[in-house]
Design brief:
Keywords: 4Fe-4S, DNA damage, DNA repair, Hydrolase, Iron, Iron-sulfur, Metal-binding
CATH class of one domain: Alpha Beta
Radius of gyration: 26 Å
EC number: 3.2.2.27
Pfam families: UDG
Shape: globular
Number of strands: 6
Catalytic activity: Hydrolyzes single-stranded DNA or mismatched double-stranded DNA and polynucleotides, releasing free uracil
Largest sheet: 6 strands, mixed
Protein name: Type-4 uracil-DNA glycosylase
Structural class: alpha/beta
CATH superfamily of one domain: Uracil-DNA glycosylase-like domain
Length: 296
């Protein structure tokens, strides 16, 4: 193991950034924790009551009379239960719970509260923030990204950090800004280390994003990123095969036109693709004008 004393300040900074991107939020507890004692207490708490009776120190088996008269351990003598991670909910049951709480919400405010209180998705337990829709819900314009980034998770808002700055420029280029559209993500919690969400996690989160769309009732949707395009179009092609073409998606018996484009983070990685994104933005702008959602 390499000691921190052997690393330069730049190497230490790079290591800390790596851990932050991987989802590590702290390195040390505020108080020392005896994990060995905690583990033993957990085992004792799970042990049947009959196995917790006092046994002779010599290892000899007590006689019948001794077994009958041996006092039972009092409540004070029993190990205190140890708080641990919340129990996992079977995927199928979690999906049903997500559908129930999503359908019960009658406004975006109620849905936000319901999602923040929902504990059926393991992504929530590793994320710092719950990313929910922000902006103008009455605009008729919705922009949907894939999943929160590390910057989104820290700021608690979609499209934060450097990709968010580029996103703001993209909107401004077609006469929009954050306050004039409704912004959200398919997945409300950042997957650890920016990994892809699993099929079970996607199924659990689906009722939440679909309910956001149903309540906002957008007239046009811009999808950013490969995952968002695949999620709504139901295809496995790459973003380069899915972008730039209008497709209808059906949410709550409403048919909504949607177009996909590259995510701002993709453009930071490969700036040469900005021309493709610009063509998609022009197509989105033209659609908004045809729907009288954007002034000429």
């Amino acid at each position: 193991m390499i000691s921190a004393n052997d690393l330069s300040p730049a190497e230490l900074a790079a290591l800390l950034h790596f851990h932050a991107d991987a989802g590590v939020e702290w390195l040390l507890e505020e108080e020392a924790v005896d994990r060995f004692a905690e583990f033993e207490a957990m085992k004792a708490a799970r042990r049947p009551a009959s196995a917790q009776q006092e046994r002779p120190a010599t290892g000899e088996r007590p006689s019948v009379g001794e077994r009958q008269t041996s006092p039972r351990p009092t409540a004070a003598a029993r190990p205190a239960p140890v708080s641990g991670p919340q129990p996992a909910i079977p995927d199928g049951e979690a999906v049903q719970q997500a559908r129930f709480v999503a359908e019960a919400a009658r406004s975006l405010g109620e849905l936000k509260t319901a999602i923040e209180a929902f504990n059926g998705c393991n992504l929530k337990h590793s994320a710092r923030s719950t990313i929910f829709a922000s902006g103008d819900a009455e605009s008729g314009i919705m922009v949907i990204g894939s999943a929160p980034s590390a910057e989104d998770d820290r700021e608690g808002l979609p499209f934060s950090g450097k990709s968010g700055q580029l996103f703001d420029k993209m909107l401004a280029a077609i006469g929009l800004n954050r306050s004039s559209v409704l912004l959200t993500q398919v997945i409300p919690w950042r997957p650890p280390g920016n990994r892809a969400a699993s099929a079970a996690e996607i199924d659990i989160c689906r009722p939440f994003i679909e309910r956001q769309i149903a309540l906002a009732e957008p007239q046009a949707i811009l999808l950013l990123g490969n995952f968002a395009a695949r999620f709504f179009f139901g295809e496995n092609d790459t973003i380069h095969g899915l972008r730039g073409r209008w497709k209808d998606i059906v949410i709550a018996d409403r048919t909504i036109p949607a177009i996909a484009s590259l995510h701002p983070q993709d453009l930071l990685t490969a700036p040469v693709n900005k021309r493709l994104a610009w063509n998609d933005l022009l197509a989105f702008q033209a659609k908004l004008k045809s729907l009288s959602l954007l002034r000429n």
